[in-house]
Amino acid sequence: MKKKIIPFLCLNVLVLFSTTLFQLNILWEVFKRQEELKSLVIIISSSFVLQAGMSLVVGIIVDFYSKRKIFFFSIWGFIITVSISYFVNINLQWAVFYLIFTAINTLFLRCLVSTAAEMMTTDEFMKYDGIAGLFNQILTITSNVVSGILIKFVSVEIIYVVIIFLLILALLLIVFLPIKDTRVIQKNEGFHQKKADEPIFYFIKEKIIKDKKIMIFICLLFLLNLDYGYIPNILPYFMLKYTSQTSPVFLSLLKSSINIGELFASFFVIHYRKKVSKLTKIGLLGSSICFLLLPFSHQMNLVNFIVLSFYGFFDTLTQPLFSYFVSSIDHRNRGKILGIIDCVIYLAAPIGMFLGNFISQYGTMILSFSISIVFVCSYILLVKTKIYKSIDLAGDL
């Protein structure tokens, strides 16, 4: 078990630190120069639209090409993008390189999830996902805080050197990943090769639309991503603006608040991951309740950190549902199915960003209610479905 998990965790850690540092640096430059949330919303929402389109492509690529080669291609893509972004100076450089980085990261993350799921049983993958989530939160907190400090006190050259050094380490680590090239096996199976030639629309009709389990999951994720798009990506900048703070360190602390909550919740997820539905219900209701405190954030800056921390905690409790769903998909079509699902839900995130930014102009009271109602509706959808309302793997594994 450890031999399977550790290499994937290390690769995930190196790439996560690099991408967080690079992208936060870009977003801070945009915010510092324009000080308008509209520009940030456009850049970040564009990245989600790009991920939606990319998801259809990367799902097919991950299913039918060597995953080790995909990892190599992704890391080299990161390194080349970072290097070029340092030397190129154009008006739209920040948006362009942010989007390129997003496209490469979409391919890398889909390959990472699919490869890990193939190498492990359902329980092993859920445990890996919980541990990976724990590591991700520690690294995200660290990288957010370090990024804020570096951006404020250190030259941009040091930032780029750190990013490239970590990516080179990731490149070396890929050689030691315990990857089974399932594509080679599948090539020898005439039937699966025939499946690969199915038109995408036929595949969607037969494998997704007719599958009630998948369609309900898509609806649930689409609804939740209205909030997931706005809260971690735009809300910290909104808080930064109305508290009249101008420090990248304060911004990094706001972003880290979510990860601190996620970090504590990860311990619960690792130990109680088999109680899939119970954790998800608690997570959805808890997320809804914590945002009722948002209107009080004007009176005390500490409330901002409390709201985001509790959101991070309760949101992470819903992770076992996604892990369960991923591991339950037929491995022969896992990449393609997840790619199509991602395409749909990524479209919800920019919608949530624009709606959240628009609603925030009318005050935190309305914004608070809007965010909470989405979580409540998601809870209702979950408990009204026989498929997801009572998943308990304790007796099944």
Automatic annotation (TrEMBL):
SUPFAM superfamilies tied to this protein: MFS general substrate transporter (SSF103473)
Major location (coarse): membrane
Chain ranges passing through the membrane: 7-28, 40-63, 70-88, 94-113, 134-153, 159-179, 214-231, 251-272, 279-296, 302-325, 337-359, 365-383
Keywords: Cell membrane, Membrane, Transmembrane, Transmembrane helix
Coiled coil (residue ranges): none
A Pfam family hit: MFS_1
Location of the protein in the cell: Cell membrane
Membrane topology, as annotated: Multi-pass membrane protein
Protein name: MFS transporter
Species this protein is from: Enterococcus camelliae
